[in-house]
Amino acid sequence: MIFEAKDLKIYYRTKKGFVKAVDRISLTVKKGETVGLVGESGCGKSTLGQGLLKILPPKTFYGGSMKIEGEELISFSENKMREIRGKKIGMIFQDPMTSLNPIMRIEKLFYETLKTHEPEITEEEARERTAKVLEKVGIEPERMQEYSFQFSGGMRQRVMIALALVLNPILVIADEPTTSLDVIVQAQIMELLNELRQEYEMSMILITHDLGVVAEMADKICVMYAGQIVEEAINEKIYYEPKHPYTKLLLKSIPNTNIDDLELNYIPGSPPDLLKPPRGCRFAPRCPYKMEICETQEPKTFAVDNTHVKCWLYSEVKK
Ligand SMILES: Nc1ncnc2c1ncn2[C@@H]1O[C@H](COP(=O)(O)OP(=O)(O)O)[C@@H](O)[C@H]1O
Ligand SMILES: [Mg+2]
């Protein structure tokens, strides 16, 4: 197993108490597998993504377990994490403008990155590696002399992808990699990512609020709601047979899907406050199928034909 989280908790420490942004999540990523992590804004996707690299505020609480190739990240020191970041786990962020240093030439940016993990590397070697990886993402190697602000949004995201790939990580976390781009560029970047992950045999956690975006790429989809995974299924399953009421609602918002057993055009209410999540099911306050038990007891996760669903509706397997 490349990556494995068990009962993972990531809580922000605030004056008002702990914000339970990731609360007892279990998740596995196999070699070469792409796992889509989907859910509305604020459900904890970025917290999970950044938590795996431990780049959250220093006082953040981590509980449970998260392992990369069997090594427990929670117990790793900051020094040890520096070796992991980039090298074992690469990250592609939503907005490359804020994560790429605009006053550094692309060439220098790559050199610095490579040097962190390979202190012996010469500028010449770094230049060669940079040229190669830029070519892979469709950028002319000559452009490494330029600064990131000289690139368009889509091109900047390509640079970001190249920067993640240059160290050849075994797992890449892509957090809303195309959200700030227009639709056509979005499709091109997704296609590029898809090709590259196959070529490099990388595993990937693809984070998005848009189920449509992961449709063609993910092998497995995890739906998050209020800090928890409420449904996990292989890609097609989630489209044709969504189980959790929340997943159905998410799918309803994509054109050309037919989820007819739900009479809802809007979801009443809003996601719960993660300082004080509801006692029972976190989705209960908004759920059209709510039962008595949902308000008092947290649902267990049930296995229903190849899908795992955290919902009391499935306590007795339904067909
Ligand atoms: N630094 C922080 N301190 C306290 N709460 C935070 C912090 N960052 C994010 N949160 C809260 O954690 C929850 C999850 O946020 P986030 O992981 O960014 O969600 P997503 O990426 O799914 O939109 C939200 O309720 C958000 O308000
Ligand atoms: Mg986010």
TrEMBL record:
Keyword Iron attached: no
Keyword Cell cycle: no
Keyword annotations of the record: ATP-binding, Cell membrane, Membrane, Nucleotide-binding, Transport
Membrane topology: Peripheral membrane protein
GO molecular function, one term: ATP binding
Stretches assigned to the ABC transporter domain: 5-251
Transmembrane segments: none
Pfam families hit by this protein: ABC_tran, oligo_HPY
Family: Belongs to the ABC transporter superfamily.
Protein name: ABC transporter ATP-binding protein
Species annotation: Thermosipho ferrireducens
Lineage: Bacteria, Thermotogati, Thermotogota, Thermotogae, Thermotogales
